[in-house]
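Researcher: Sequence recovery benchmark, item below. Answer with residues only.
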C-alpha cells in the first residue's frame, strides 16, 4: 500500500472540492525534531534536578553519560538568564552532551511501546518552517504554512486499512493518544448525552481522565487474566443500565498485557441485552496494535464495516514518530456534533486542540512510504517472533510469564529490585512488569536482559535473603502462567 505524494483535493461538507495547485514531490525528505532542552540537563534514572547557573559568564556545566544509578545534574537558568547570555557554542555543547546520554538508554529501552529504531534525519530541513495544521484538515485554512495534504494522505491510508470509504470518514492527526480518545468519547457523549461509558479496568489511564473531563458516567468492567474485558460482567452492567445508551471503549491491545477485546463478542452481548445500533457507540483504542493487527494472519480485524464509531492509533508507538501524535478516525456524519465555523481561519473548528503541529503528519507519511506495506508486515512479524523468543526464555528459567496471542507485550513477575527495573526502563503495575518488543529491541538486548534478570533473581530469592519467594501472579495472568512454588508444582 503506497501513499501518493501529489496534493489531494480538500473535502468540505457541501461536497465542493477546493483544489490546490497540483504538486509532485519526488524523494521528499523530512526532519527529526529535537526537544527544546537547552535549558536543562536530565538525569534519566533519577528525574530532574534544579541546578541554576551561578554566573552568566561561567561555563555551562556539561552532563556526563549516565552510568548505573546516577545521571547528570540539571542546568536550570534563572529568569534573568533568559537573555541570550550563552553562546551558541556553549549551548551546543550542552545539547551534544545530553545526546551522548541517549544511546545508553536506547540500548536498555524495553518497557514502553515506543519504536526507537526509525530515523528521520532526512527530514531536518523542515525544521526551518513553523508548520501548523490548525482547523479542519479537509478544508484547510488561511494559515498556509501547513501540511494538510500529507495529513490527508495518512488518513486515506488508514481509511483503506480500516475499510471505510473516502467519502464516509473524517479524522485528523492529534497531538497524542489522549486527545484522540477524548475526541472519540466526546462524539459518543454528544450523540448520546445521557449515555454511560463502559470500559475495562485494563484501559489506558486516559479513558478515566476523559470520563472526568467529559462528565460522563463511567462503569469500569472487570477483565480476564489476559487483560481482555470480562464479557459476562459487561453484560450484567449493560442490563443494569438498560434504559441508558451505551458508549463503549474497546481495547485492541491493553496497555499492560496486550489483551484484545473481541468486537464481535461485544456486538453479540449488546444485541442480547436489547441494544440496537441506534443506542450504542463503540470506540476502539488501538494505540499500538492498530498498525500491527492488520498484518498478522487471523488476527482480529479493525473494520468500519462493523458498527464502530471511531478508532485511534498512536503514531509515535509502532511507527516511531519522534513527536507524540495519534491518528483519530470517525464517521463523517458524526463530525458536526463537535464543529463550528471559524471566520478568523476560514475553516471549521473540528478538532480538540485547534493548533496542531504540521510536522507529525509528514513524519507519518514518510514512515508509511519508507516502510511500505511489505516492510510493515515484516516489522510486525519480527516483533512478534522476538516476543515469543523472550517469553520462552523466561519460561525456561522458571519465571512466571505470559504472552497473549497476536501480541508483542511480554508480561512477567515484577523484579524485586527497582534499580534493575530502572536499568531496563521497565513498566510496572502491581505484581507485574512487561517488555514491549519493538523494532529497536534486538536479540542481543533480550539475551542480556534475561541473563541479568536470572542472575539477580537468584540473589533476590536465595535462602538466606529473609526467606523471600517469587510472587504468586496467578490472579494477574492466570495459574498456568505463574511460576510460584505452589503453581509450579501444580502445573508440573
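Model:
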Amino acid at each position: 500500500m503506497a501513499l501518493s505524494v501529489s496534493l489531494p483535493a480538500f473535502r468540505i461538507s457541501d461536497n465542493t472540492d477546493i483544489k490546490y495547485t497540483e504538486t509532485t514531490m519526488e524523494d521528499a525528505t523530512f526532519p527529526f525534531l529535537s526537544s527544546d532542552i537547552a535549558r536543562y540537563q536530565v538525569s534519566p534514572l533519577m528525574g530532574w534536578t534544579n541546578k541554576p547557573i551561578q554566573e552568566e559568564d561561567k561555563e555551562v556545566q556539561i552532563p556526563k553519560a549516565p552510568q548505573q544509578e546516577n545521571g547528570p545534574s540539571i542546568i536550570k537558568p534563572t529568569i534573568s538568564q533568559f537573555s541570550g547570555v550563552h553562546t551558541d557554542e556553549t549551548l551546543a555543547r550542552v545539547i551534544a552532551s545530553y545526546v551522548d546520554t541517549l544511546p545508553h538508554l536506547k540500548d536498555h529501552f524495553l518497557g514502553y511501546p515506543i519504536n526507537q529504531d526509525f530515523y528521520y534525519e532526512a527530514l531536518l530541513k523542515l525544521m526551518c518552517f513553523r508548520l501548523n495544521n490548525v482547523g479542519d484538515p479537509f478544508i484547510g485554512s488561511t494559515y498556509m504554512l501547513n501540511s494538510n495534504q500529507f495529513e490527508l494522505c495518512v488518513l486515506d491510508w488508514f481509511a483503506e486499512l480500516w475499510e471505510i470509504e473516502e467519502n464516509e470518514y473524517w479524522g485528523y492527526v492529534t497531538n497524542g493518544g489522549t486527545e484522540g480518545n477524548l475526541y472519540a468519547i466526546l462524539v459518543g457523549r454528544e450523540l448520546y448525552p445521557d449515555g454511560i461509558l463502559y470500559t475495562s479496568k485494563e484501559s489506558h489511564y486516559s479513558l478515566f481522565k476523559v470520563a472526568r473531563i467529559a462528565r460522563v458516567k463511567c462503569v469500569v468492567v472487570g477483565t480476564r487474566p489476559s487483560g481482555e474485558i470480562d464479557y459476562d460482567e459487561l453484560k450484567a452492567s449493560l442490563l443494569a443500565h438498560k434504559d441508558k445508551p451505551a458508549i463503549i471503549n474497546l481495547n485492541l491491545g491493553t496497555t499492560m498485557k496486550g489483551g484484545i477485546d473481541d468486537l464481535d463478542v461485544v456486538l453479540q452481548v449488546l444485541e442480547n441485552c436489547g441494544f440496537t445500533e441506534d443506542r450504542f457507540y463503540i470506540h476502539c483504542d488501538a494505540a499500538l496494535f492498530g498498525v500491527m493487527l492488520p498484518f498478522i494472519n487471523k488476527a482480529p480485524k479493525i473494520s468500519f464495516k462493523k458498527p464502530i464509531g471511531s478508532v485511534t492509533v498512536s503514531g509515535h508507538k509502532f511507527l516511531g514518530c519522534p513527536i507524540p501524535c495519534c491518528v483519530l478516525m470517525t464517521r463523517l456524519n458524526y463530525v458536526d456534533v463537535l464543529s463550528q465555523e471559524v471566520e478568523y481561519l476560514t475553516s471549521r473548528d473540528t478538532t480538540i486542540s485547534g493548533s496542531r503541529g504540521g510536522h507529525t503528519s509528514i513524519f507519518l507519511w514518510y514512515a508509511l512510504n519508507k516502510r511500505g506495506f511489505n516492510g510493515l508486515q515484516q516489522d510486525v512479524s519480527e516483533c512478534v517472533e522476538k516476543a515469543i523468543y523472550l517469553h520462552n526464555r523466561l519460561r525456561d528459567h522458571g519465571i512466571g510469564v505470559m504472552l497473549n496471542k497476536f501480541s508483542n507485550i511480554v508480561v512477567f513477575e515484577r523484579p524485586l529490585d527497582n534499580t534493575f527495573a530502572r536499568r531496563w526502563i521497565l513498566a510496572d503495575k502491581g505484581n507485574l512488569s512487561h517488555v514491549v518488543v519493538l523494532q529497536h529491541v534486538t536479540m542481543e538486548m533480550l539475551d542480556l536482559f534475561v541473563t541479568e534478570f536470572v542472575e539477580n533473581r537468584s540473589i533476590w530469592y536465595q535462602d538466606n535473603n529473609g526467606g523471600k519467594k517469587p510472587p504468586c501472579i496467578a490472579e494477574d495472568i492466570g495459574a498456568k502462567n505463574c511460576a510460584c512454588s505452589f503453581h509450579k508444582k501444580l502445573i508440573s
